[in-house]
Amino acid sequence: MQEDKTVIIPQGALQQEPETERTVLVRPGLQVVLVDENGQTLKNYFFTSGFTAGRSDDNDIVVQHGDVSRHHLEVKQENWDWWLYDLNSTNGIYIENALVHQKSKLRLPVSVYLGNTHISLQIYMAGQKPEAVKQAVIDPTILIPSSVPTEATTHQKLSKEEIEARLLAKNEVEGSGDYTRMVRKIIHEDRSSRGKKYQKVIWILGVFFLFAVGAVGYQYVALSNARALAIDMFYDIKTLEVNLAQSELTIDKSSEVLDQMINVLAKEKHWAEQDLIRAEQEKIKAERQRVAEEKLNLKSMKDKYQHYVKEATAFRFRFPTNARYEEELITKVARDFGESELELPDGFVEEVRKYIQYWQSSSRMPEAMARLEMNNYAPDIIAALETEDLPLQFMYLPLQESNYNTMAIGPETRYGVAKGAWQFLASTGKEYGLAAGPLADVREYDVQDARFDFRKATKAGAKYLKTIFSTEAQASGLLVMAGYNYGHNRVKGMIRKMPDNPRDKNFWKFIQQYQIPKETYDYVFYIFAAAVIGEDPKHFGFNFKSPTAQVKQQESAS
User: Fold this and answer.
1) CA 463 to each of CA 111, 366, 425, 524: distance values in angstroms, whole numbers, following the listed order
2) Quick check: pTM over 0.70?
3) pLDDT for 63-85, tens place per residue?
4) Is the CB of residue 236 less than 8 Å from the CB of residue 300?
5) Which runs of consecutive H residues, i.e. helices, occur in 169-314?
6) 151, 350, 384, 476: which has the fewest C-beta neighbours closer than 10 Å?
């Protein structure tokens, strides 16, 4: 036996048996033989009133082995019988391969094994011969009963890895004993059972995986279809908006011409034309009724469009953050201006944020909004825009034009001098009912110039926006602003060259197709960024109240 293996410290032994056979006086008690892992006898003990065994030095039999508990077992006599007690050992006690649960009555002679160490206590009544006892009680599958080579002797020479390979081998090794065959059977039955369970789990996981892939694929197709439907409906809405706006312009023009005709006929007293006039009035009335009904249809389409947008973005879950909130505001303002929110160009949100930062770093907006509130201009602007069915966000256009300063006068240009809060040129103002004064082309204030009248200029501004909205811009709010900024110059010419339908004529396509002037580009983004701030001024660090929010609250209250 090697020195680093089990060390036995004899303690509490009353008598050691002599090595030679001789007659002894038999006394009541137990003879105990301690056998190591290799089947070699280490010590013999004699006890009259029981004993304890374990790793601790206070045991009667001390076994210094890592798998043996400090207090492993106890044997004591009760009513003339000997009983074995497990002292809550970690690895248990075995009697001839059977695990002892708490306690067991001993039928002597018997072999008691300490855990899985192959260390055993051979216990027999005092006076019996040790050799006879060992031959009677040693388990042939664990210890070495004779010099005949058996599976037991082979096991003692095998390493842990070799034993494991034998037990787990697909084919049984020749010469295997009953114990090995029993263990192999248990192992292989367990592996077979586990294999079937794993196979079942794998099938379930496979089915679940295929279902998940199918569900994801279905959702992807469904979302793609919802997005395509939403985009198609968006441009159907834009087309209808353009047609309705053009119809309203035609109705207004026809009504204006008819009113002029009525005035002329009344002055000349040509009453014979009254039937013709009434017929024209009925046509105009019927056309207005048709437009009103189409507007109801338009509202229904917009509601359905929002439903498709929600479906198309249903799985875009993101944690709520300030950046996410601002992105939602930017998307909303784009939608309100009549741009496709599902087709926002890459980098558009970040570009808008740059212009928001400009407003945040300047005193322009707080001063302009204070002027707007002090003069109570907001209700006039919003009323004019609502009359023309235009996005309310256009109210920030005169902010960029003049800071809502009705006395503003622009620089001299070859087209003339722009004046008033909406910065009308004299020629453009005249088209929309604003009479210019005698100082029209001079950079001076003129009390006779209607462009300085905020209410009149606001109504004219809304009509001018409606014209651009329904013609060149094809209901694209951002294109409307680009056209308003440069009026009669080349920007409008570029817009007119684009295909005359909302799908192919919008601001996204415009900035991709043309290198527009920086002044126009900045003009559009300044107004857009101001409209975003106007949705929630406090979020962006401003103290003014949102004009559009106040109007909506008043409308909902009424």
Assistant:
1) 110, 27, 15, 19
2) no
3) 989 889 999 999 999 888 899 99
4) no
5) 178-268, 274-312
6) 350
Query: What SS3 class is residue 523?
Result: helix
pLDDT per residue over 375-391, tens digit each?
999 999 999 999 999 99
Q: Could you give the C-alpha distances from 4 to 1, 10, 33, 65, 142, in angstroms and in order? A: 9, 18, 21, 10, 22
* Domain 7-156 CATH (choose: 3.90.79.10, 3.40.630.30, 2.60.200.20, 3.90.850.10): 2.60.200.20
| Kind of pairing between the strands at 93-95 and 81-86 | unpaired
DSSP-derived secondary structure for 418-452? EETTTTB-HHHHHHTT----TTTTSSS--TT-GGG
The b-or-e profile of 26-52 (16+ CB within 10 A means b, else e) is eeebbbbbbbbbebeebbbbbbeebbb
Rounded CA separation 516/513 (Å): 9
Residue type, 361: S
> Whole-angstrom Cα distance, residue 211 to residue 472?
50
Long-range contacts of 489-498 (CB under 8 A, 24+ apart): 491/516, 491/517, 491/520, 496/472
- CATH class for the domain made up of 324-557: mainly alpha
Quickly list DSSP for 52-88: EEESSTTSSEEEE-TTS-TT-EEEEEETTEEEEEE-S
- Residue 140: which of 129, 132, 151 has the closest Cα? 151
